[in-house]
Amino acid sequence: MDLDPTLLRTFVAVHDTGSFTRAAERLHLTQSAVSHQIRRLEEQLGRPLLQRTTRSLTATEDGEDLMPYARQILDTLDSLGQRFRPSPISGEVRFGAPENFVGDRLPTLLCQFARSFPSVRLDVRVNMQLDLRALIKDGELDLAVIMTPGDSEEGMHIRQTQLVWVAAKSFDLPRGSPLPLAFFPAPCINRRVGISALDEIGVKWHTVFTSPSQQGISAAILSGLAISVLPLEDLEEDMRIVDGCYNLPSLPKASFTLICSDEGKTPAAQAFGQLILDLSKQMVQSRPKKRGRK
Description:
By secondary structure, this protein is α/β, with parallel strands linked by helices.
């Protein structure tokens, strides 16, 4: 049976208001049009749905049975219409983020946004070497995710992470040798925090590897060439946490933070920022924790 949703919507309105007149006002129809639609629905179902008297209007037993189905159908159609309704938001969003924030979630982020806001053009820059804070300040980006100290009040907090010293499971440091380190180029909070912690306690170190990519730093660590500073969740197989080893001090927490420029407060940028926050929450809930052994 192929029921017309318009007839179901009219039936629900009559049931809820208890009156053909009030239902007509709600639906912006004439009373005769409402009566005609109810008759058509009853003819399609072959059952009377309403009992009419001079003083009251009530649903029959079949009408009461129909009601939850009618509401469910209309709710589903309304949700479907909302999902595929063209968005009025247009324009451009320029977004930047470090590689270790977006990771394999970037395709999902871009796909969901493009599907929901097809009239918005995206310009996305993902790189560990970019000075995203400077690009925001200069108005070259609308939104950016940066890493900040854990107690920073800058921007909008997304999620927190623990910074740790990381080495390959096979790494060994000859006695008396300075610590070989691998870092992203400056500015980088991992680099700044690590070097500051070592200099504060007088540990000897030297940089043996510099790379702008997460893959490059991982390769330096896994080869046994160097130790580095990474967020705890970025540990990979065959890596281990070496906090406390080789006189390495414990490191503070850091936060991923969303910042925006004055130009980044458009409806398009705000919609993209909200999607980042929503997906980040999902990532925190679903991402397995990776822990290495000392």
